[in-house]
Amino acid sequence: MILALTYLNLPYMIMPLYSVFKDMPKNIIEASSDLGYNRFQTLFKVVIPYSFKAILSGLSLIFLASATTFVISDKLLPNPAQLQTVGSLINQYSDPSNAYELSTGSVLVLVVSAIFIGCYAMINFVPRLIIRLAATKSRKGVKNE
């Protein structure tokens, strides 16, 4: 099952990374080696921060695609209780003939979406807010002197 989901969702991660790495200037990597970074330091301190937005967009695409794949888990797993994905759980709880199950499925969709949006906000906007607050504090300190 993991192999099937990886095979289906791998292009959603590769395409954003490919577009970023294709346009990445080669002099950035040369400059990092001139500054004394080895290959691993270049990867973690230069390449990953440069491609962070592409990694984040690829992860969001994979999450959204894998959250809705309930057919794959139904077809590949002989026992449905063996492993449940988020998509199969939502499909199980969204029976339109039963109002309770439909509301449970809707709440599950909202909770998963809220968790994803919250994680995205924590990764993107909280560091910017902290930097902005630190900059305003440093400006106030300069004005008082």
Automatic annotation (TrEMBL):
Q: Which family does it belong to?
A: Belongs to the binding-protein-dependent transport system permease family. CysTW subfamily.
- Chain ranges passing through the membrane: 54-73, 107-131
Localization in the cell:
Cell membrane
Note the topology in the membrane. Answer: Multi-pass membrane protein
Instruction: Outline the extent of the ABC transmembrane type-1 domain.
Output: 1-121
Q: Does the keyword Endoplasmic reticulum apply?
A: no
Q: Known InterPro entries for this protein?
A: MetI-like, MetI-like_sf
A biological process term (GO) from this entry: transmembrane transport
Keyword vocabulary terms for this entry: Cell membrane, Membrane, Transmembrane, Transmembrane helix, Transport
- List the GO cellular component terms: plasma membrane
The name this protein goes by in its record: ABC transporter permease
Give the matching Pfam families. BPD_transp_1 (PF00528)
